[in-house]
Specification:
8 strands; alpha/beta; 264 residues
Length: 264
């Protein structure tokens, strides 16, 4: 009997599973050590984005990761993985630090989108996202971005300007959620499943469109079945891509990144 075809909507549901591995699960398994750093030096520390220093062997990295909670309490603490502007400013602070000290940057993308609340807008949500896009374009260190779950809207792209953009096979990456797309296009959020098919948001779709560079296969068809194996796959890619990017002249690195995103 032929196996059931996995639809785009199936991928969305898998990406949203409550027990899907989070950024911190991968950080724990990929890096030999990790030290979290806090605060944007403007407003407060927003826990929806985790920043810190890690290493694989002798190679040091700066890590920027969108973090969802594993239960209701954690989700409230992490604002359900939806960053406020101070989260993006924190991320930029440590990415600029990485540039100062010559550390490659690894970002983990997993968000429904930037937080749309009144306070976030008052504190400059749009400006914070736009500044990250601008600043990341010119950073003189390698940037590896990995979409591990949901990657929606500017909330994802704000830490997604990478020299290499990878996606797990069940991750999704799009301009907004399928529900949001359906609400705008058809005034009917219940048509989200139909919207998912039209949005070309799966890893395979985005690889074909040239938006991402590589799809990472998940063990047994779902990363949650073997976090260590999934982490090992990601670790090998991070190490090999880092060496490849470090071999480039800085001007070539930045220009290649700029041209990569200009084509989209």
């Amino acid at each position: 009997m032929a196996s059931k075809k996995i639809t785009a909507w199936d991928r969305v549901l898998i990406a949203r599973e409550a027990d899907r591995p989070t950024a911190l699960d991968y950080i724990e398994n990929i890096f030999d050590e990790f030290m979290e750093l806090h605060g944007d030096r403007y407003f407060k520390d927003d826990k929806s984005i985790v920043c810190g220093l890690g290493n694989i062997g002798k190679q040091n990295y700066t890590i920027v990761a969108e973090q969802k909670g594993r239960n209701t309490k954690e989700n409230i603490e992490r604002n359900f993985g939806m960053p406020n502007p101070e989260a993006y400013r924190k991320a930029l602070r440590f990415m600029k630090q990485a540039e100062k000290f010559g550390r490659p940057i690894v970002t983990f993308i997993d968000t429904k989108g930037a937080y749309p609340g009144l306070g976030a807008e008052e504190r400059g949500q749009g400006e914070a996202i736009a500044r990250n896009l601008m600043e990341m374009s010119d950073l003189e260190v390698p940037i590896i971005a990995i979409v591990i779950g949901e990657g929606s809207s500017g909330g994802a792209l704000a830490i997604g300007v990478g020299d290499r953009v990878l996606m797990l096979e069940n991750a999704v990456y799009s301009i907004l959620s399928p529900e949001g797309y359906a609400s705008i296009l058809w005034k009917d959020s219940s048509r989200a499943e139909e919207a998912a098919e039209k949005m070309k948001l799966t890893a395979k779709d985005l690889l074909n469109l040239g938006v991402i560079d590589e799809v990472l296969k998940e063990p047994n068809g779902n990363a949650k079945t073997d976090v260590e194996k999934m982490s090992e796959t990601m670790k090998k890619k991070i190490v090999s891509i880092t060496k490849e990017l470090q071999a480039l002249d800085v001007n070539e690195l930045v220009e290649n990144r700029y041209q990569k995103f200009r084509k989209m």
